[in-house]
Fold this protein.
Amino acid sequence: SGLSQIVYSQTTVPETKVIMQPKTVTVQTPKTVMEDHQMQVQEPRTVVDRQTVSVPRVVEEDQIIQVPVPRAVQVPVQRMVPKTIMVPVTTYITQYVQETEQRTIKVPRTINEEKVVEVPRQVMEPKMVTVQRPKVIMEPREVTVQEPKTITVPRTVPVAQTVKGQKYIETPRVVEYERPQVQVVPGRMIRNYRPGGVYPAGHFESQQQANTGYQSQQPGYQSTQAGYQSSQGGYQSYSPSAQPQQQPYQQQQQYQQGR
């Protein structure tokens, strides 16, 4: 209707975002250390025992024995010899007799005698030794981790409001276009470029033939931005023009500000 129009402005709304921020935390990490440990072990040791044993030994000792020994002695015998007359004559003949004689000889004899010997012997005796034994302990260590944090940041969004009390011409439906991501290729003209801002419906269709490049549309884009900034002061002093031309829009803006 002629008494209402749609105007656009910006407002700030809170937006929740999750960011990662570093945080230093203390964690318990295992660590292996070597500690002294006293333990008792059995250690072999050689001791020498003195023992008295009897060992056989052969000795030579003297022994007196009686042995028969033949010896020649002269004994008188009488015999008859022819003579004119027979008279006894004494002659000597050899005759062996047995006599006993003492002699000393060596004979072996085994005797037992006592002797002290040393006998080694292995004994086990306890002994305290110090060994290194591993032990796991927990020690604190500071590490930096990324912790998610939810923050609220302001976000500027466009809002549409219906403003009443205007008596000029009816404004057609206004559509907001977002600026596309244009990839500029060297050596080529930028086709179908639509700058961001607020334009009435059908604006780019009417400018399709005249929009031969980015520079031809740039003055119109700047004037639209100026009109949009002036609407921040109050909603009653702004209305987008229905005509895509630049000159009638500035005149209508002056008319609104004069009212």
In short: The chain is about 15% helix and 60% strand. The chain has two domains: 31-134, 168-258. Residues 31-134 form one domain.
